[in-house]
Design a protein that fits this description.
Tail-specific_protease, Pdz3 Domain, 4 domains, 15 helices, signal, S41 family peptidase
Length: 511
């Protein structure tokens, strides 16, 4: 026990020193020659590990972009300022999963505990981005009486337009589609802002509602005892919470199921994220219920689903397929040894090193054999999702509609492109933010730039759905395009779902 206590104490001391060292380092300016070395290192690692680097940009053009980046570095910069230099160049590769990590400030355990006892500053509001403007969509706590539909014009006297232009350069979709940005920007805007400016206890915002401009002061309030009790209750698990994948941070479920009509003929499944957590149970129980009720139509909603687990979408497809299928082709890599370059000991505590050290021989042995060279000379990664899967006994046999939008990304794009290609579903909405023909992700090799210490996770698997490729370099396009707007969202209207319901009623009426 004494040894364990000593090890725990050493872990705490190590962690505190690590936080202080990191925060000093992120603010220390580095000379131009050191930063240029980091640019060269990043580009070298991208060419070494990224399996499809020149899909959306030619090697010649990318060389020019990185050369221009180095020429633009003429002054000493902190890692934070350097991030805003290098990330736009990485974004020009147009791979949505590929991004340098913004070096946000780190906090000690004591500071984190203090923040947990306070409410959010910006996070208690929900937002919407349209035409490069930031609007408040919901205000559940009625903070400062900010009404839904309010536009935020400035934060601490800095115009929101300036932040929009700055942050927009940092992000990319897969390929040349533009639908992804409003969704990702509304979700990431204050993540960028907080990483750049720290977690503030207060902020002055300038707002406009119905042409009336006013200034509002937001403060980070302390949680009441009732709030703390609510937090505890949210963390407590039960069967429903586990099966539907309850997310305490948003007080909502990742998955939900219901019927859209009284006679239970139209089933509706909403998946916010393919997290995999308890997903097998959810789909097993849900599709059994659908079969028992003899539902004739199924609506699957993956709008604003940024993706996640290939295992979950492979399992979901097995409840939709009418014959054996292969979800994805064998993922391509730059080398069969790429799985060994995933930084196994990254972010490991002293105790973690001991545990991982014991497991390392088994992990490395496995990784050594999952990469193989094909007859074409290319390296491929072996995974079960690239093998044939049989439909489930309770697989749905009726008509399927899938709702998509620009927030449907990664795994959401893979399953919807497969459904469309196989003519197993009618897609309704807008072009997805993820590419139709595949993406580079899977697992990552985490690279640390030697001088700035910026983190660059590089996906090592080129994953493509088993389809006839469109070669459009864009997202999955819907069979029926129905666009949304801020006005309809504000009014809680859903034109995409309403179209589907109306179409099903026409089918039932034989029109």
């Amino acid at each position: 026990m004494k040894k364990l206590s000593l090890l725990a104490l050493l872990t705490i001391i190590f962690s505190c020193n690590s936080v202080q060292k990191y925060n000093r380092q992120r603010e220390t300016k580095l000379p131009p020659e050191k930063l240029k070395q980091d640019v060269d290192y990043a580009y070298k690692k991208l060419k070494e590990l990224h399996p499809n680097l020149f899909w959306y940009v030619s090697e010649k053009d990318l060389n020019k972009k990185f050369d221009s980046l180095k020429l633009s570095i003429t002054d000493s910069l902190s890692p934070v300022d350097f991030y805003f230099k290098i990330q736009p160049a990485v974004a020009d590769i147009r791979e949505g999963h590929l991004a340098v990590r913004i070096p946000g400030k780190r906090y000690s355990g004591k500071e984190i505990r203090t923040m947990k006892n306070k409410k959010g500053l910006f996070g208690r509001l929900d937002y919407y981005v349209e035409n490069q403007k930031l609007y408040v969509l919901t205000n559940k706590d009625s903070i400062e009486n900010i009404l839904p539909g309010t536009e935020i014009l400035a934060i601490n006297d800095v115009p929101v337009e300036k932040f929009m232009k700055k942050y927009r350069k940092l992000m990319t979709s897969d390929g040349y589609n533009s639908t992804f940005y409003p969704y990702y920007l509304k979700d990431s805007f204050f993540n960028y802002y907080s990483a750049e400016n720290g977690f503030l206890d207060s902020a002055k915002i300038e707002t406009k509602y119905e042409d009336v401009i006013k200034t509002v002061n937001l403060t980070r309030e302390s949680k009441s005892e009732a709030d703390k009790e609510k937090d505890k209750a949210q963390k407590k698990g039960n069967t429903e919470k586990r099966t539907n994948d309850y997310v305490a941070a948003t007080d909502s479920y990742n998955r939900s199921f219901k019927y859209l009509d009284q006679d239970s003929t139209i089933a509706y499944i909403k998946v916010k994220s393919f997290s995999k957590s308890y997903s097998e149970r959810f789909y097993r129980e849900t599709f059994q219920k659908i079969k028992d009720k003899k539902a004739t139509h199924l609506v699957i909603d993956v709008r604003e689903n940024y993706g996640g687990s290939l295992s979950e979408i492979n399992n979901l497809y097995s409840y939709l397929a009418k014959e054996p299928f292969k979800l994805v082709n064998k993922p391509e890599m730059t080398s069969k040894y790429s799985p060994l370059k995933t930084n196994y000991f990254r972010k490991t505590s002293p105790i973690g090193y001991l545990v991982k050290g014991i497991m390392a021989p088994f992990i490395f042995t496995r990784q050594l054999f999952v990469g193989k060279k094909g007859k074409d000379g290319k390296a491929y990664y072996s995974m079960k999702h690239s093998k044939e899967t049989k439909p489930k006994e309770t697989a749905f046999q009726g008509k399927v509609y899938v709702l998509i939008n620009g927030g449907s990304f990664s795994a959401s794009s893979i399953i919807t492109s497969k459904l469309k290609n196989d003519k197993r579903a009618i897609l309704v909405g807008e072009e997805t933010g993820g590419a139709n023909d595949g993406t580079v992700a899977g697992f990552y090799s985490y690279q640390s730039l030697p001088n700035s210490k910026l983190q660059l996770p590089i996906g090592v698997l080129f994953i493509q759905p088993n389809i006839d490729f469109t070669n459009t370099k864009k997202g999955v396009t819907p069979n029926v395009e129905i666009l949304n707007s801020f006005e309809s969202t504000l009014n809680k209207e859903d034109p995409q779902l309403e179209w589907v319901k109306a179409e099903i009623e026409k089918e039932k009426a034989g029109i």
